[in-house]
């Protein structure tokens, strides 16, 4: 922090100076202020100070008394990667940020906050990942629909026909796997696809004429699986 009061007394003494002396004092004051090194921080609109990620990683590593090699071993990366992070030449991915957050005991928000470049990178990476997942989900759904139509054209549409039911159940399974991958998909649609696949699986077991006990055991397993997946889907979506 620059002590302007001290600098003013040092060069000016008081406001009652001759014009030439005042001009020389102003130049000297400006020169000394320029010579003060600037710290590598950024101020936000509310006046708080944000530390960039490279400085924060180095600061937290020193607090833990860890060398770059030791931290690299804990994060399962090379020492060169740690060195690049601390020099601001590259950024860790989200997984490594989470691991570093656990090791250092500070939140992920504290690590990322204020480093605008990293925030944009994480947003872009997350957006690209979501787009990739959505595309893969749509591919699975389309393949599932085509498989269902293909089964209907190859075999008679009969729920007791083993071949037809194998194609229909497989098609429903592909659709069920693809639906949760699509971004912003309604929860009821995911659960509907799951329950339909479970129901078709039961019908398929009946169509292949399994023994009674085998069929009952299969139904129990499917009910348990459906219950577990319902809880997971409800909590996640």
Cα end-to-end separation: 49 Å
- Count structural domains: 3
How would you sum up the global shape? elongated
List the total number of helices: 11
Number of strands: 2
Q: What's the mean pLDDT score?
A: 75
**What are the secondary-structure elements, in order, as H or E?**
HHEEHHHHHHHHH
Description:
With 237 residues, the chain is mainly alpha-helical. It has 11 helices and 2 strands, in the order ααββααααααααα. It has 3 domains: 4-35; 49-114, 434 Repressor (Amino-terminal Domain) (Orthogonal Bundle), CATH 1.10.260; 126-236. It has helices spanning 4-11, 19-35, 53-63, 68-75, 79-87, 94-104, 108-112, 116-154, 162-178, 187-207, 212-236, and strands at residues 41-43, 49-51. Strands 1-2 form a two-stranded antiparallel sheet. The longest helix has 39 residues, at 116-154.
């Amino acid at each position: 922090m620059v002590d302007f009061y001290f600098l003013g007394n040092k060069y000016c003494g008081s406001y009652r100076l001759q014009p030439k002396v005042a001009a020389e004092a102003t130049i000297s004051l400006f020169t000394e202020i320029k010579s003060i090194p600037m710290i590598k921080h950024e101020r936000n609109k509310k006046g708080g100070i944000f530390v960039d990620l490279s400085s924060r990683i180095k600061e937290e590593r020193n607090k833990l008394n860890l060398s770059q090699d030791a931290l690299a071993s804990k994060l399962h990366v090379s020492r060169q990667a740690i060195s690049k992070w601390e020099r601001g030449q590259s950024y860790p991915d989200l997984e490594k940020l989470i691991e570093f957050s656990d090791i250092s005991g500070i939140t992920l928000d504290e690590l990322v906050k204020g480093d605008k470049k990293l925030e944009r990178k994480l947003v872009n990476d997350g957006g690209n990942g979501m787009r990739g997942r959505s595309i893969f989900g749509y591919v699975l759904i389309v393949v599932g629909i085509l498989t269902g139509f293909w089964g209907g054209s190859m075999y008679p549409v009969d729920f007791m026909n083993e071949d037809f039911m194998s194609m229909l159940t497989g098609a429903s399974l592909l659709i069920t796997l693809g639906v949760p991958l699509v971004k912003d998909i309604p929860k009821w649609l995911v659960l509907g696809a799951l329950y339909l696949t479970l129901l078709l699986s039961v019908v398929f077991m009946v169509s292949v004429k399994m023994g009674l006990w085998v069929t009952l055991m299969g139904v129990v397993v499917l009910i348990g699986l459906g219950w577990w997946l319902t809880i997971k889907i409800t909590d996640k979506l």
